[in-house]
């Protein structure tokens, strides 16, 4: 094996290591979101604390992956597809870290909602529904990243529109509850914050799917419609 082949194989191994770490981080974030939603809807105090405590693990993974990407850029000076891969990783872990923050926020809202003197907890059916969509979006985005497959991106963008509509519906319902009984205002606002966190998770999953299109196709598809995105993917 000559020196250039050795360098090339080491470079490939470095890129694969980074990709694997992103998927590990994504798996942790997906677990954090699922547990946060379960903690909110079931009132599981142990799980609430677990989600809040585990947020530092997500942060640590982001820092480590970011350091590895910086080392690859400095040592390997990647170009073309390899550079797009590194840029996609850096953007993806930023969105994953923010999803982790949103999961912790949901857990903190759950902690407030289940405080001893306030046990009114309406509209968890809708919360579960919107959460299921957002978690499915994240799962698809991670799968697309793992398989270097941009085809799911348009579907994820459409799901994000569905999440936005579900969130608007939850707002309308909570406003109605607050108008009917002002004693419900504090809890309703906390549920609203949790719903907003889920809506933001959907936004981040959509971003991740768009990065995959950029990585594979070299096309920046941010701020385009689902139909325009499908057209770019088919090119």
From TrEMBL:
Any single biological process term in GO: phosphate ion transport
Domain PhoU: 23-109, 127-212
Subunit structure: Homodimer.
Keywords: Cytoplasm, Phosphate transport, Transport
Name of this chain's protein: Phosphate-specific transport system accessory protein PhoU
Family assignment from sequence similarity: Belongs to the PhoU family.
Known function: Plays a role in the regulation of phosphate uptake.
Subcellular location: Cytoplasm
GO cellular component, one term: cytoplasm
Species this chain originates from: Nitrosomonas halophila
Record bears the keyword tRNA processing: no
Xref: Pfam families: PhoU
């Amino acid at each position: 094996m000559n020196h250039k082949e050795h360098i090339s194989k080491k470079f490939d191994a470095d890129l694969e290591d980074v990709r694997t770490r992103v998927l590990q981080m994504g798996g942790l974030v997906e677990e954090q979101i699922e547990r946060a939603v379960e903690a909110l809807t079931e009132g599981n105090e142990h799980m609430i604390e677990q989600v809040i405590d585990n947020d530092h693990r997500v942060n640590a993974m982001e820092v480590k992956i970011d350091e590895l990407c910086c080392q690859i850029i400095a040592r390997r000076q990647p170009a073309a597809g390899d550079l797009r891969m590194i840029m996609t990783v850096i953007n993806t872990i930023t969105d994953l870290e923010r999803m982790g923050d949103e999961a912790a926020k949901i857990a903190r809202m759950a902690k407030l909602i289940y405080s001893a003197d306030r046990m009114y907890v309406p509209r968890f059916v809708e919360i579960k529904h919107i959460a299921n969509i957002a978690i499915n979006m994240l799962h698809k985005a991670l799968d697309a990243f793992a398989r270097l497959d941009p085809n799911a991106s348009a579907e994820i963008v459409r799901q994000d529109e569905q999440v936005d509509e579900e969130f608007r519906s939850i707002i309308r319902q909570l406003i109605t509850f607050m108008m009917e009984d002002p004693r419900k205002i504090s809890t309703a606002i906390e549920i609203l914050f949790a719903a907003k966190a889920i809506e933001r998770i959907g936004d981040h999953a959509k971003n991740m799917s768009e990065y995959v299109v950029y990585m594979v196709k070299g096309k920046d598809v941010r701020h385009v419609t689902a139909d325009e995105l499908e057209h770019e993917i088919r090119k």
